[in-house]
Structures are given as C-alpha cells and as structure tokens.
Amino acid sequence: GRVPRTQLWPLRGRQTLAHPAPAGVSRGLQSVRTLLVLTSTHESYYADEGAGIPSSRLLIQPSNQGTAPAILYSLLRVREMDPKGVVAFFPSDHHFSDDDAFSRHIDSAYAAAAFRPEMVILLGIPPVTPEAAYGWIEPGIPLGGPVPDSVCRVSRFWEKPSCSVASSLMGRGCLWNSFVMVGYVHAFLNLIRCALPRLLEAFESIRSSFFTAYERVALCELYSGIRSTGFSQDVLSVKADGLAVLRATGLGWSDLGEPGRVHSILERKAVLTERGFSNDFRERDGALARMTAAG
Cα-flanking dihedrals φ and ψ of residue 177, to 5°? Predict the structure, then answer.
C-alpha cells in the first residue's frame, strides 16, 4: 500500500522514530525486554540504528501485511519467552512532546492491566479537531477498583469515521486512539482469536520454527499466503468488550503518519534551521516522496 515511511525521518538529532522505544518509555524498560518490529524491505533505512541491536530483539517481517500480523508475530515471540508477560505496543511514527507525562500514563495503563488482566488498555487522546483519519474510542463506564476514573471500558471503537461522525464523536467526549496499547499476552491473543482466528492459526502453525534457523523461511512462506489486515479495523473495531481506555492528557501527542505533520513538528522544534541537518532532512523528504509514489 501507499504507506509513508515517516518513522524513518530523524526527529531526535539524527535518531529516527524507528528507535526501539520512546524516551519516556525507555527509562522504565530494560533494553533486553524491548523488541523492534520491522520489515525487510525497509532495511536500508533502519540498518544503521539496528546495527548495535542483538538480532533476537529485531523481528523482521518479510513484507508489510498490515499491523495485525506484525502485532501477532511479536506477541507469539514474546509468549515463547514469557507466557504470563505484560506487553506494551508503541507505534514508531507517533510523537509525544512531554516524556514525563507519557511515562506516568504508561504506568497507569500497566496498573489497569494488572487490575483487569483479561483486558487490553488503550491510550486515548482528547481530540482538538474532528479528525476523520484517526480511530476514535467511545468511553463507557469507569473500570472501577483501584484505578482512576480516567480508565473506562470501551463502549465502541470507531475506525476512521466520516467528518460528520467525527464531529459528533468529539462532541460526545470520545477520544482519539493513539494506538499505544498495554495488556497481558493472553489478553491480546484472545482479541485476535475472536476477530481473526485463521490468522492466529496460521502463525501457530510455524510456532516450532521460532528461535531456530528455519524461522525466516517459515515466516516468508506464511506471509506469502496471508492477506493484509489492520489491528484497529479488523480487531479493535470488532472486539470492543475486551478493551478499556485511559484518557491521557497533556502528552503533546501527534500522529506523524503523514509528511505534513512531520514538517509541523520539525518547524516547532526549529530543527529545519539547524545547519547540516536541513540538507539531510530534505534528502530523506525526497526519498520518502519517491517511495510513497511508488507505493
């Protein structure tokens, strides 16, 4: 598909968004417990940053078949290492201007997952515009217990609604889906089992190849036979009863999936005026435009 590779643009000096973890998260996680899900066709763009990372932490997909296979592959690999583990997913093309606030909200999401281990916790962002390109979360009743009232059950998930519907959702207090998610491995797998049972079966069929020399071959064969599926549209939208949402305020969140949003962030940070970096950015800008046009 026509997917802009904005996560490969440098926003932190010369460090790209594909770096293994956001700054506000990496302080609370051991590097050995951080995995990076990548696609082999993008290797020339992430090779430099990946050079110092052990291969066991790099999950390389043979092709891009959407977010659902990428998430499922990583979940099954984590399950082999720790079947009772808690997992957090952080999209590489999202930006948070307040790392401390982000870290505090992630801690709250972990606490909510510990209280309700059967549920996946989403970070919801209070909207500032009726954005039709985002997923929207309609909060339900508070989760209760020891977690704050800002954590609610998900009443419904709306994936990229029309502009008029987005305006209505904004008026009703709905939230943008940041696609940051926290939950136990089994909670994520239960969502996928209900929504995409055949995809789960396909990945389970190559489980014996994990951490062996045959894994890459088995993965290539599997990916050649599956269709592209999105985790938001094909899982979250159809299994809202297994979700909770944490209303996350003060993060300075931006989805950088489109080039215009990246330019906006860079202009605010005055990065484009830095001597030496500007030319490098423009070169990557042109490369991204060519990749986008090629699809």
Answer: -85, 115
